[in-house]
Amino acid sequence: MVFPMSKVRKAVIPAAGLGTRFLPATKTVPKEMLPIIDRPILMYIVEEAVRAGIEDIVLVAGRGKHAIEDFFDVSYELEDKLARDGKDAWLESLRKIRDAANIISIRQMRPLGLGHAIGCAKPIIGNEPFAVLLGDEIMIADKDKPTVTGQLARSFEQSGMSTVAVMEVPASETHKYGIVEGETTAMPDGGTRIRVGNVIEKPTAGQSSSRWALPGRYVFDASIFGHIASTKPGKNGEIQLTDAMVAVAKEKGLLAQTFTSRRFDAGDKLGYLQANIELALEHPELGTALRQYLQTLGKTL
Ligand code: G1P
Q1: Is-cis flag, bond preceding 24, omega within 30?
Q2: Domain boundaries, the chain
Q3: What's the CA-to-centroid distance between 177 and ligand 1, angstroms?
Q4: For domain 10-267, which CATH number applies: 3.90.1100.10, 3.30.450.70, 3.30.420.40, 3.90.550.10?
Q5: pLDDT tens for residues 51-98?
Q6: Residues 6+ apart with CB under 8 A from 92
Q7: 125-171: per-residue pLDDT in tens?
Q8: Are strands 162-165 and 217-220 parallel, antiparallel or unpaired?
Q9: Pocket test for ligand 1, best of 139, 176, 179, 198 (most atoms within 8 A of CB)
């Protein structure tokens, strides 16, 4: 089958972090496998990608790779038992996970940074454009609306330029994110688009001229691999994706744009709890009971 090269069909999900913010749980469970209600964080990320039309997903794992691989594999004993017990709905939900996309798992041999992790996916991505989705953030778009990755893919397909998602954060939070600087224009939907001039990794308040933060959703063309390969260790001695993005901005141009979607910072304990509560309130089996419980709790707080 021949695909037009501008269509974004592949994605990279780096999952090699140590998850130190969730220790001790993450001593044995990769943070991407921590559940939001009953589904691991990784499922939400994979679903966002699949809804955006992604077919092949490259998981760049480090420690804990087996738990992640096994999740997308057949679990013969479990499925056989479910079939014998007539638990068809559960069986179906496990099959859906497997069939969602082609999951290709590779290992980042050394923890050299996010840029390096993305670079590890080059042999699988080849010359195609691709999305990157970081597992710390969960983006839940309305059912009938494009996901954040879908919004970036559309920008790439229309403009031919690599496009990344940004959101405005308070000055007190710039030190948590890569921050984009550049010329802004208004988009027809009320959002903002930026022609990126510079990207600074985790500046302290006042070290950047803007507060446009990268929440971990990107669409790049394959030229970024060459820039990653020539990127020297930067902040914290790591090969930073943001430094390679500066090179893309200079060579071919890079767009950053705001997005329409709910977002949860699941890499943070409070954000993780908020995601669980908000999504459980919408859950058909849990919503009513949880709302009643929270209301009772509210009276005593
Ligand atoms: C990484 C990136 C940073 C980005 C952030 C989003 O940092 O280096 O540019 O804003 O993800 O979550 P990390 O949070 O992995 O340190």
Answers
A1: yes
A2: 10-267, 268-301
A3: 5
A4: 3.90.550.10
A5: 999 999 999 988 667 888 888 888 888 888 888 998 888 888 888 877
A6: none
A7: 999 999 999 988 999 999 899 999 999 999 999 999 999 999 999 99
A8: antiparallel
A9: 176
